[in-house]
Amino acid sequence: MRYTVQKRLVIFSFLCIPVGLLVLFLLYPTVKLFQFSFTNWNGISESFEYTGLKNYITAFQTPEVWTALGNNFLYFILHVIFIPLEVMVAVFLNNKIKGSNFFRSIVFMPYILNGVAVAYIFSYMYNPINGPLNALLGDMNLEFLIRNWLSDSSVVNYSLVAVSLWRFSGFHVILFLAGLQSVPADLYEAATIDGASAFQKFRYITAPGISRVIEIVLFLNVRGALQVFDIPFLMTQGGPGTASTTFTVYTIQTAFKYNNYGLASTLAVILMTIIIVFSMLQSKLFKGRDE
Amino acid sequence: MRKGKLGIWIAVTALLLSVLSGCSGGGSNKGDNAQGSGSESKTDSSAKAVTLKMVMWDSNNDFITFLNDKVKEYTQVKPNVTIELESFKSDSDYLQAVKVRAGGNALPDIIELKPNWLSDFKEQLMPLDGLGFVSGNKYADKYKVDGKILAVPSVSFPELVYYHPSVFKELNLEVPTTWPQFIDVLNKIKDNGTYIPYAMGGKDAWPDYPFNEFLPHILSDDENYLSAMAEQDAPFAKGTAFYEGFSQIAQLYDAKVMGPDPLGVGWDQATDLFVSKQAAVVASGLWFVPTYVSKTGSSDDLAAFPMPYRQNEDTPLKLMTFTDHFYGISSSTKYADEAKAFMEWFYSPEVYQDYIDHAQLGSAYEGIDANVPFLQDFYNNNKNEPFLYIPGNAAYTDLANAIQLDVKALGQEMMAGKTVDEISTDLNGKWSKAKSGK
């Protein structure tokens, strides 16, 4: 066998498996997802009909879809508001303080906890009967702050976002910390010699130094906020009624509870499109700043 | 040039894989059932060793263990047949798993179902009309889909209101037989302040089913009320059973007799409050009794009465009766004859008697009575008229799914303050739109 043929055979053999897996588990399901999004398949029946753009029109005309997206937006915006605080904590932990390794571990701990466990812990914390949170507020003479944390429609989404913040902020802090540690120390030394203030150092050295990390955190935030599922599903099942339903919870219910896989596929396509569009916008924004 | 050729190779391979996987994923490929049916032949020889897969749910571990052991006994009857039982702890997890398998044409041979799932799975179930074990079933005829019996119910049981007789005695309360009396009793318990009157568990949505699901149904006085709704243009409007029923429920929710936060606690916590006698009343099916006994050790301080949906004593006291744990045979099974033979054995008097005695629920078969003392006491002490829960037909199910109708979630919204008028207007709008779009 000629060398070039052997070489091609080896390359082909090595590529065959990963490409095959990619096609089987990524491309094929994605193609099927797009196909189902134009059908009325109920997920059980052996047959279905093509309904054109009906599912897309239904999705955009259904108020519950927009309500669910609004709830997702709350997760996004509150996480964004928390980014400066996360950066501050990272800056603090970046200093050589006693027990900084311990604090870094503590900050990261919520992220590695199982989502189901987190949901159960906070369900207990928010419990209206003998729940620690309301008991604590009572002991501190702050009775006026006591709420039905998971059953009051006007409060429930904030209660759930608080859990999300508790769980993911530590991860963001660790990412920022990694970014901070990649900024060369001599830049700060030079700035100190030049008489720069702490704010000026942050503005002109730290912020540009961790901009790539901020971009990653923002991307994770967009993706995470749009796909948030486990916390509302486990803690409230989207309730009371549909008050805390997020886009993914709504999609899952459309598919499995109401047997409308066609519409659920459409919602999944819409979600994918929103994430891609947001990521592209964000990427352009950061590229513009870099230039 | 070389790079170009390599790219073509990869593209061709990817296309081939895609086409191959596409063929294997075809939902209508009935001939491809060897793996899809979930069954497997232990050998290919003429011995015909067969493994039948059966799938069920139950929240009671002891019952799952019992059933697992019971179905294994079938090997003594038919040595070549092995029953492999797969169990789930909750019906919602079970339903999701079964739907996914149905979509992939990979259903087990014998499937357990709830009555309201039958029309969804009509294409996946084999008609059972004329088979021996169907003829003795008291209810199978009532649950025909498109004129065919697709599954048989294993149990029937009443939906009850449980209470602690000691609490009623302490507060000098009478068992209510009308809706105003029921609310009055709960108000008196609330006024006393010692106990939570009614343990709702509304965080889970489904525990409000005795009200939001059953009350309009019973008020309609038509067991086929849900199917009849599919014919109506505005089934939620003023004057309908739905509107009147929901208005009646609103009276109960507005009375604030369900503790400090009925939506903040789930079913398990609510029943714990009842079991520990912090709450006085709770409503559910007969299946709650084994749970109660397992937690307290006895049913000494437990009694039940029919939910008094009626407004006055001039009308009969209807008792909602539910049939459950239907079993059907998958239409894609490779072993239809073996599955039918197993079902004949499963519902034979001796095996079935053992089944319902362990399930601690009512019998669904003529001539066989369940040995459930609590149930016998209930029937001895309470006069009522059974009212069978019949789910909506395919037309109703399609419409309800199209508007994402979940009456139990609506119950949550009512507890959170949504009015019946708001619900009625919203649902009528969606219903007429869904109906005209058909």
From TrEMBL, chain A:
Gene3D superfamilies: MetI-like (1.10.3720.10). PROSITE patterns: ABC_TM1. SUPFAM superfamilies: MetI-like. The keyword Zinc does not apply. Keywords: Cell membrane, Membrane, Transmembrane, Transmembrane helix, Transport. CDD domains: TM_PBP2. Residues 68-282 form the ABC transmembrane type-1 domain. Belongs to the binding-protein-dependent transport system permease family. This is ABC transporter permease. It comes from Paenibacillus segetis.
Automatic annotation (TrEMBL), chain B:
Residues 1-25 form the signal peptide. InterPro entries: Bact_solute-bd_prot1, SBP. Keywords: Cell membrane, Lipoprotein, Membrane, Palmitate, Signal. It comes from the Bacteria. The keyword Signal applies. Gene3D superfamilies: Periplasmic binding protein-like II. This is Raffinose/stachyose/melibiose transport system substrate-binding protein.
